[in-house]
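worker-3 :: picked LytTR family transcriptional regulator DNA-binding domain-containing protein
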Amino acid sequence: MNTLGAYLEKLRLSCGYSLHAAARKCGLSHGYIRDVEKGINRNNSRSLIPKPNTLKKFALAYNADFNVLMHLAGYYHEEVKDEFEFLEIRLDQILYIRVNCNNEIEYHLESEQHEEKRNLYDYLLLETKLEKHDFLRIESGLLINLRQIKELSFPERKIHFESTYLPLTWLQFTKHNKTIRRAIDRNTLEEELPSTTLTLIRKTSRSH
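worker-3 :: tokens ->
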């Protein structure tokens, strides 16, 4: 089983990188990165284990633990574990996303919440992805899923979802209330099949 390759692929996807983007970040060719992920050198069909200096490039590019990569590659025999686990989330099930005071990204769903850490570059990639899937940027570090909104109340200035709500400041309400009300009207009239687009996150151990 190609444990290292599968792990590196998940790291790449959790960063939101295509193979070409990963190549630019790592300073490696996209073909080589894909070979490592598959664990096979396409030129000779032999197993492929990167050298430690190459693993260091992956660790820096993916904001990953170098020691974990060294263990998975077989250089360290003592097990090293991450402080996170990979988790796939459906974008259509996210209510809103917020960056908290610890610079962690909070994913709020109806019955659960998850946190992860990302650097600024990767977070901006995530924002761009979300805005292509009907998420509205209320302000820097706060995005709401327009498809999940049920009601916008005034004068309370609250965005209501199925079983929870999100309060807005006066400035946020004034700036976005027309867009939100149009989304509510559309949600009432349209019956679309839910999107199954997934995003892969690194869920921290404190998530619940």
